[in-house]
Write a structure and sequence with these properties.
heterodimer, A: alpha/beta, Rossmann fold, 2 domains, six-stranded parallel sheet, four-stranded mixed sheet, 12 strands, 50% helix, B: alpha/beta, four-stranded parallel sheet, elongated
Chain lengths: 475, 224
């Protein structure tokens, strides 16, 4: 079983998000990403060529995924590490909990990992009596609040500094009550101090991986805070959890992807810390983990290979699609109801948790196409959302009014003479009825539209009749 | 083992392969062996003075501070100056790297500590494996002489970088890695570090000094 979600209630979630004044205020912060990415791209003339290269590397790897996983696994074992496979979330949780229990772990620090969110690792650790400590600042904040991430690289983007201050005052009871937390620097400094003690006390560190390298058996994490590094070098054991499509052939291939990842994600030329880890502590090493485990998760991805959603497995989790999405910008990440929000989430979620649960998400698109324009690995996100909509319709999962409405429209649309007649009559009637205000605040059969906005009254004839008149005049 | 077999079976079923196809295996082995470079940005290319200039500009963009000294023996005075000017305590931790331990530290007033950090150190110094001009990035490798904890736990991290170790790009650093550790080999930890630690998780405001060093000072050693 995957971590439970509310994707099936997408419409209700959206309504809540749109009327949440605090959330609407905080969502403005994510608009900074757009300008930063554009500036970083402008500084690198090779960026478009790198996108092609990144796409080709991912496609090549996916076509040979079984062989690259075998090669990767062999190299990890050679360096003294262990590789475990999990078919689904439950198996992955069992492996991690089993390893932690075998080491007698009481506390586990965690670097930011979307796979950990996907498998619901924190709940499982708590249930096993082990304390999970999120160490990425954003993840730490939402862990205190009992929330899930609302963005894949900026998990607390739905919160303001004021929200964080309130949370720190509630959680850090042993610090003086009269301390000042008015400045973001003070919040950061307090988190650094509190988490430093947790880092030093942890028994196991769990991180995700941005890439796994088959050539060397290496896992790569990319962070700006340094939290992932403290998570993996201080405890007795480092557990990496990663999904099957994270493997790439060589160091050079990883460099191609790193060049597009940081720029697409935060607009940095390079993230502050890119760390390559290969196996456990070696003889003579003064520090580092004594055990190194990699848990490789499938959870529905292998079934996507070779099918119409295979392109989605190229995703490197930069978040550019959501940063440029008008729907995400309006409703935030939580409305999507499961782990992955935005356009990439709208495509991936139905693949991983099923179209019955996640099938509404691909409707959350205006088809403006910006997500595809900025995707570093050129995933045709709008097309794939269209595929899902077709599947949802085929499986009769869309709401009855939509199905009947489309059937009604199809009847007229496939009979051109009847269509022209009907639209002409409707346009005239609406022009007449709306001539006073120029707009309708209520219309029969269109309550879903007019509840939130007015519909403009038609000013002239239909497009088709105008076109006929115009092309007649030209001829 | 059951899960492994099931995952591989599912991958192969979806791809329509059985895994023993000679052409597929040949393609994978060839790629792993040849490690083709792909698209390498021009930005970092050039002779040593050009790479040095790019490295400095890019590292400063990432909020690192830099200094240049003529030789290894001149580094301690520069490091002492940096710590003094930033009102840091006069202690400095380092690993057993002979390039560092061989410097004339007694000419400074710094108290020198050796070995890995337990989190109580304010200052540390490391020696870099390479610099990467393209993005102003330092490459540091772990090993008996180079504790990784020094790169993350102290508030102030000083890194000594030989001028000739400034390479154009990531690909050149990986070539040096293969020359040192053998093809397919790697150090336990390779840290690629670009500027001091930071976070923008609160209202997308960039703040330095999240969990790692608040300051990163790079001392470049060598004369042109």
């Amino acid at each position: 079983m995957n971590e439970a979600g509310t994707s099936a209630h997408f419409k209700e979630n959206v309504h809540e998000a749109l009327t949440d004044a605090r959330l609407q205020g905080a969502l403005g912060f994510s608009r900074n990403f757009v300008g930063r990415r554009a500036a970083a791209v402008a500084r690198l003339p090779e960026f478009e060529a790198l996108r092609d290269s990144a796409r080709a590397i991912k496609d090549h790897t996916l076509a040979h995924l079984d062989l690259y996983l075998e090669a990767y696994e062999r190299k990890v074992r050679e360096s003294g590490g262990e590789v475990h496979y999990a078919q689904d979330a439950e198996e992955a949780r069992e492996i991690v909990i089993g390893l932690c229990k075998a080491m007698g772990a009481k506390s586990v620090t965690k670097g930011k990992s979307m796979i950990a969110e996907e498998i619901g690792l924190n709940h499982a650790l708590e249930a096993a009596g082990i304390e999970p400590v999120e160490t990425d600042l954003g993840e730490y904040i939402i862990q205190l609040r009992g929330e899930t991430p609302s963005h894949i690289i900026a998990p607390a983007i739905h919160l303001t500094a004021k929200d964080v201050e309130q949370e720190f005052r509630r959680a850090h009871r042993d610090l003086p009550a009269d301390r000042s937390l008015a400045e973001p620097e003070q919040l950061l400094s307090e988190a650094r101090q509190v988490l430093r003690a947790k880092f030093l006390a942890a028994d196991v560190g769990v991180t995700g991986a941005n890439f796994l390298i088959a050539e060397t058996g290496t896992s790569i994490i990319v962070t700006n805070e340094g939290n992932g590094d403290l998570t993996q070098i201080l405890p007795q054991a480092h557990i990496v959890i990663a999904s099957i499509e994270k493997v790439v052939p060589t160091l050079e291939d990883a460099a191609q992807l790193m060049r597009v990842l940081a720029r697409s994600a935060t607009g940095q030329d390079a993230s502050v810390y890119t760390t390559l880890s290969t196996g456990p502590r070696r003889p003579g090493d003064p520090d580092g983990p004594r055990a190194y485990h990699v848990v490789i998760l499938d959870n529905g991805r292998s079934a996507m290979l070779g099918g119409e959603f295979e392109d989605m497995l190229r995703c490197i989790r930069c978040g550019a699609c959501m940063n440029h999405c008008p729907v995400y910008q309006a409703v935030g990440g939580h409305a999507y109801g499961w782990v992955y929000p935005g356009p990439m989430g709208a495509v991936l979620t139905p693949s991983l948790i099923g179209v019955a649960e996640g099938g509404q998400l691909p409707n959350a698109s205006t088809f403006c196409g910006r997500c595809e324009q900025v995707c570093p690995v050129r995933i045709p996100l709008p097309n794939m959302m269209r595929h899902w909509r077709e599947r949802e319709f085929e499986r009769r999962l869309s709401p009855a009014p939509l199905r009947y409405g489309l059937g009604f429209w199809a009847f007229f649309a496939s009979r051109p003479a009847l269509y022209r007649l009907a639209t002409d009559v409707t346009a005239r009637a609406m022009r007449l009825a709306g001539r006073n205000k120029g707009r309708f605040s209520w219309l029969p059969f269109a309550g879903g539209w007019t509840r939130y906005r007015d519909l403009a009254a038609p000013e002239g004839a239909t497009f088709q009749s105008q076109w006929r008149a115009k092309s007649g005049a030209v001829r | 083992m059951k899960a492994r077999a099931a995952v591989f079976a599912s991958i192969r079923r979806s791809l329509g392969v059985h895994g023993d196809e000679a052409p597929r295996r040949f393609e994978v082995e060839t790629r792993l062996e040849a490690a083709p470079a792909g698209v390498v940005p021009k930005r970092g290319q050039g002779d040593i003075p050009a790479r040095l200039a790019t490295f400095k500009a890019e590292a400063e963009r990432a909020q690192a501070s830099l200094a240049e000294v003529a030789g290894w023996a001149d580094a301690p005075a520069e490091i002492a100056r940096f710590l003094r000017e930033n009102n840091c305590p006069a202690t400095l931790r380092m690993g057993a790297d002979p390039r560092l331990t061989g410097m004339p530290w007694s000419e400074t007033a710094l108290e020198i500590l050796h070995g890995a950090s337990d989190g109580r150190d304010v200052n540390a110094v490391s020696a870099a494996f390479a610099g990467i001009a393209e993005t102003g990035t330092l490459a540091l490798v772990s090993g008996a002489d180079n504790p990784t904890t020094l790169n993350f736990l102290p508030d102030n991290h000083v890194v000594v970088l030989p001028r000739e170790a400034i390479l154009p790009d990531y690909e050149s650093a990986f070539a040096k890695l293969r020359a040192t550790y053998g093809k397919g080999g790697a150090p336990r930890t390779l840290n690629l570090i670009t500027g001091p630690s930071r976070s923008a998780d609160i209202e997308q405001t960039l703040l330095l000094g999240a969990h790692g060093p608040r300051r990163l000072h790079i001392v470049i050693v060598g004369e042109g």
